Amino acid sequence: MQALSWLVVAALVTGCKAAESRPDEVARAPSAAPSTSAPARADAPSTSAPARKADAPSTAATPSPSGAAAVSPSARADAGVAWQLRCLAKHYDATVDGDALVTSRGERVPLRAPGARTLDERLDSTTAEDVFAPRYSVGPVAPVTDPGADPGRFRPTPVFRAVYGGTPAEVERGLVAVDFVGKKIRVHRRARPAFEAVSAKLAALVAADASLASWFEGMGGTYNFRPIAGTDRLSAHSFGVAIDLATARSHYWRNDGAKLVWKNLVPQSIVDAFESSGFVWGGRWYHYDTMHFEWRPEIFDPACRPDG
Ligand SMILES: [Zn+2]
What we know:
Elements (H helix, E strand, L loop, with lengths): L1 H11 L24 H5 L16 H4 L6 H12 L3 H10 L2 E3 L2 E3 L5 E3 L8 H6 L3 H4 L25 H8 L3 H6 L1 E6 L2 E6 L3 H17 L10 E3 L20 E5 L21 H8 L3 E3 L10 E4 L1 H4 L8
Antiparallel strand pairs: 1-2, 2-3, 4-5, 6-7, 7-9, 8-9
Helix pairs in contact: 10-11
Bound molecules: zinc ion (ZN).
Zinc ion binds next to strand 7.
């Protein structure tokens, strides 16, 4: 019953995305959002902003033996740095070298790649521009019908390897236990504040509406070092920054036939709770994965935009 009503709501709001007027920022539609979402969004994402100084790329903080000479070139370089590189450097402790991001392991993520690329090529070799294109939009849940709309699905994997770990042993050293709506889960310690924040919001939702509790039963889990089904790419679950809710009530694009038809049962209030805590939702993707939520602070940082 609950599920059916959400399907109806989702169908009714079809087309809301067409109202987006500012594609350069995370779109919001507070007038149509549930009352729980508006106050929570004011500080979204609650975990990333306080953690680091707003405009302090890690390059600027790097000590240099050359004294005064180290400050001014860094400042001059920052002025010309593409915002995507600046933003990824800020959130993932990387440095910028020309038109590329350099991780602490020395791996590079380019700003962009030449020529037209397929979706798989963009997923396999994600550039800094890919991470933010198309922009992720919050607001009313709506069917995704544009085959090019997978906002927040592109991951700069070398960056993730550097901060979370590149092997099971490395990632597992960073995992911590978190209470998540009454269940113990393991997530990467960097993502712990975000998981704790969303858990508190979700627990409040369940307290007000017991029917929502079923979304936290039979969950698909958090940490699991594995490739994405049908690919060689590491899943976000490999890094302990993603969670899958109740698998039995979720929808996944790979279970469709040749033609994808977006479907979803996840309630708006749960989506809002996650997004306002810095998590992207797989239900915003044409290649939908509705049980999947993934902590991506850079996607929600208001400073991560051309004029940020
Ligand atoms: Zn998942």
